[in-house]
């Protein structure tokens, strides 16, 4: 099925798909852009958190040059952070930094400096190294590390060390130009994203970024089994990343052993199924999305209670013989909601109503002194603040 048929099938306005095989890149574009024009091979799509791999690449260059030690305390470079926090923690999302810290620090060249300072002064209840918890904030700190050790704004370092040497033409490094650099918010074409991937496959020094650092990531329904230094690790030696950016989604899968890679960039927030079909066709992917059991087990008392992150207090409870997750906003950025769930395996629950990405999985992770779950995990960890009812 061609890309034009796929975007019609999944009601996606516009998309690009690029495939790297045998060192060559083929690409296809279809649909319309957000401005109403035709999507072409040169159209730039926001790639969201796929930016994190670019940040990890810059960090590794600094390591290779002897300017950064991944296991040295970050506070040696950026004063104010706890001495137990390292750059390796940040690259592997083990830093204990909530993903959703927002500060009113403006949009200038000093945005990362101000953000890192505010983040260092904030409260962080989860100690570094305790649990995997996906963190945009942590990668913003890495972006600031790149600035400090390079003596230049992050987007200038990115352009000078990666974009220009590779001769990339569609990469926009200052999209939004706020606190996102280092974590998300670049734009590029699918073809040029795969040129960047080809750099990783050709440069032996970058292979270390794909080595397993976190062997067991809590199940959150994404198919991710582990984590490298920036890379998500999937089944059968596949690595990749996903990006979300204001109504757009981007998907990347790489098979290093065969030198194959696929990039799917879209201008829709509801494009997970389209990407999955592309990966199944090109990579013969065997990923099976999770779904609720027809006769799930009961929610255990050790699972129930209230868990907290930066945006919400989330209560897992049973009401009228049904289990629900109740989200209570802690800031004006959150929105109250209820999600009905059922038991999913030994230590997780799953939503009974699918979202555009499929069924949401929430893992119960760790154990406190009373034998209760310590964290509620859906990619990022929320920590327990109350006992079960």
Q: How many extended strands?
A: 17
Largest sheet: 8 strands, antiparallel, barrel
Which range does the strand content fall in? Answer: 15-25%
Provide the CATH top-level class of the largest domain.
Alpha Beta
Shape: globular
Order of strands across the widest beta sheet? 10-11-12-13-14-15-16-17
Helix content: 10-25%
Name given to the CATH homologous superfamily of the largest domain: DD-peptidase/beta-lactamase superfamily
Number of helices: 8
When the domains are counted, the total is 2
- Structural class by helix and strand composition: alpha+beta
Radius of gyration: 21 Å
- Second-tier CATH architecture of the largest domain: 3-Layer(aba) Sandwich
**What is the H/E order?**
HEEEHHHHHEHEEEEEHEEEEEEEE
Q: Could you tell me how far the N terminus lies from the C terminus, measured between alpha carbons in angstroms? A: 52 Å
Per the CATH scheme, the topology name of the largest domain is Beta-lactamase
Uncertain runs: none
């Amino acid at each position: 099925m061609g890309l034009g048929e796929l975007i019609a099938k999944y009601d996606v306005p516009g998309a690009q798909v690029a495939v790297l095989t045998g060192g060559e890149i083929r690409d296809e574009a279809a649909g319309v852009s957000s401005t109403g024009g035709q999507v072409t091979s040169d159209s730039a799509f926001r790639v969201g958190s796929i930016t994190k791999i670019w940040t990890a690449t810059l960090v590794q260059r600094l390591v290779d040059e002897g300017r950064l030690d991944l296991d040295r305390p970050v506070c040696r470079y950026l004063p104010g952070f706890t001495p137990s926090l390292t750059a390796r923690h940040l690259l592997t999302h083990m830093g204990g930094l909530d993903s959703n810290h927002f500060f009113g620090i403006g949009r200038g060249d000093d945005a990362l400096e101000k953000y890192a300072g505010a983040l260092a002064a904030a409260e962080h209840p989860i100690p570094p190294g305790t649990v995997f918890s996906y963190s945009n904030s942590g990668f913003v700190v890495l972006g600031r590390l790149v600035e400090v050790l390079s003596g230049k704004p992050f987007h200038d370092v990115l352009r000078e060390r990666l974009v220009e040497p590779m001769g990339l033409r569609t990469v926009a490094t200052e999209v939004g130009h706020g606190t996102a650099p280092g974590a998300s918010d670049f734009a590029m074409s699918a073809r040029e994203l795969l040129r960047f991937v080809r750099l990783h496959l050709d440069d032996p020094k970058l292979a270390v970024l794909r080595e397993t650092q976190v062997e067991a990531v809590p199940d959150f329904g994404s198919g991710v089994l582990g984590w490298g230094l920036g890379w998500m690790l999937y089944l059968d030696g596949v690595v990749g990343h996903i990006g979300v950016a204001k109504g757009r989604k981007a998907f990347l899968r790489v098979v290093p052993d065969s030198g194959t890679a696929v990039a799917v960039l879209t201008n829709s927030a509801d494009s997970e199924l389209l990407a999955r079909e592309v990966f199944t066709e090109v990579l013969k992917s065997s990923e099976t999305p999770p779904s609720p059991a027809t006769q799930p087990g009961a929610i255990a008392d050790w699972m129930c209670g209230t868990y907290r992150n930066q945006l919400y207090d989330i209560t897992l409870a049973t009401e009228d013989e049904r289990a629900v997750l109740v989200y209570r906003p802690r800031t004006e950025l959150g929105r109250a909601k209820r999600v009905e769930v059922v038991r999913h395996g030994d230590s997780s629950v799953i939503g009974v109503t699918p979202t555009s990405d499929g069924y949401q999985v929430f893992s119960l992770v760790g154990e406190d002194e009373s034998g209760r779950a310590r964290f509620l995990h859906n990619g990022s960890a929320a920590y327990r603040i109350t006992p079960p009812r």
